[in-house]
Amino acid sequence: LHAPGLNINYGDAEGNIAWWAAARLAIRPAHVNSFIILDGASGKDEVLGYRDFSENPQSENPQSGILYNGNNQPGDTGSGLEPGYYAPEERAHRIGQLLNPVKKNWTADEMKSIQLDTNNPRIQNFRKHFLTLISENSARSEVFRNAAEVFKNWDGMHDIKAAGPTIFHRLFYHLSLGIFADEIEEKGTLVLLNVSLIDKSIPLLLNNPQSPWWDNVDTPDIRETQAEILRTAWINAVQSLEKDYGSNVNSWEWGRIHTLEIKHLLGRKKPLNLFFNIGPFPVPGSKGVVNQLRHKYGPKELKVSSGPSTRRVIDFGNPENSAGINPTGQAGYFFDQHYQNQTPLYLAGEYRKQRINRKGILTNQTSRLIFSP
């Protein structure tokens, strides 16, 4: 399998597990950086050939007995690190935290809880850079004081009722503007905010207070410090949240900001959205967490743009008791009873039995769809 590039995970009833990066991997000249525009006229940047499929990154029956990935860059499996545009490490890191290699007897319910986990492990490093300055600014008003307490005590979970994630993502937005908008303007920063590169860049910049990115190029006679940019981002974040959602910090619930609307092709134009679309609904999760209901950044609401198209837990010892769910239903026809009947379960983090036994299917069927020529 050469295209598209896929992560393929395998498991069977005999206990074998495997992971393969399935793609056609190019061999390039040593001087070529495939992330930039190449010279297509001279021929000097042309692909030299392709690696044999057997050399692709892979893992089969590892000693740990565990395999997982979050579309992150794999480690060296024997043929070196393969360059590519990978997702950040935090989802894979969190999965690794939850999949304790010492534990042997996993239940289906425990695997479901991993799929639904909403903790982002990079929160701790991000937050520590703000702790001093948010305490210093607590005297500005009761709103600043309460926002500081919520943010300092937040456990990193993106639950619907939590205010912590609302503060974090608004702060991330204003921090990004403070770092990049002077070089690439607000419009360019919004583009950057919605690609994975920024999730890798911000932690590096936070850990490097001497980076030239902290200086505002619009003030050539002044060299801004990291602390100044962080302070301004915090003030702008809290003030904008107060303006948008009021002075009661506890009402800044994540579900008010982070919503899922499943759009029918015809529902992209109002007022047809009222007839064809499913939602919007408040949802947990976020970008960068296991339950990745990924949103696009903007100055106010964060609307989910992608997420799990299905959740599935398979017990290879008893596959007929496997469970799964999808965001809508089995039918694409908006008047059908199965158009959105799975949505309430999906939103609640629940699953339904995946019936694969013909007798069980016929016994429990509620309707039948017949295709006639």
The fold-level CATH name of the largest domain is Penicillin amidase (Acylase) alpha subunit, N-terminal domain
Strand order of the largest sheet: 7-6-9-8
**SSE arrangement, N to C:** EEEEEHHHHHHHHHEHEEEEEHEH
Mean pLDDT: 91
Shape: globular
Largest sheet data: 4 strands, mixed
The amount of helix comes to 25-40%
Please state the CA-atom Rg, rounded to the nearest Å. Answer: 24 Å
Outline the structure in words.
The chain is an alpha+beta fold and 373 residues long. It folds into three domains: 81 residues, no CATH class; 134 residues, Orthogonal Bundle (Penicillin amidase (Acylase) alpha subunit, N-terminal domain), CATH 1.10.1400; 65 residues, no CATH class. It is 32% helix and 12% strand. The strands form four sheets. Strands 7-6-9-8 form a four-stranded mixed beta sheet. Strands 1-2-5 form a three-stranded antiparallel beta sheet, with no helix packed on it. The chain has a three-stranded antiparallel beta sheet with strand order 10-11-12, covered by helices on one side. Helix 5 crosses helix 6 and helix 6 crosses helix 8. The longest helix has 30 residues. It is globular.
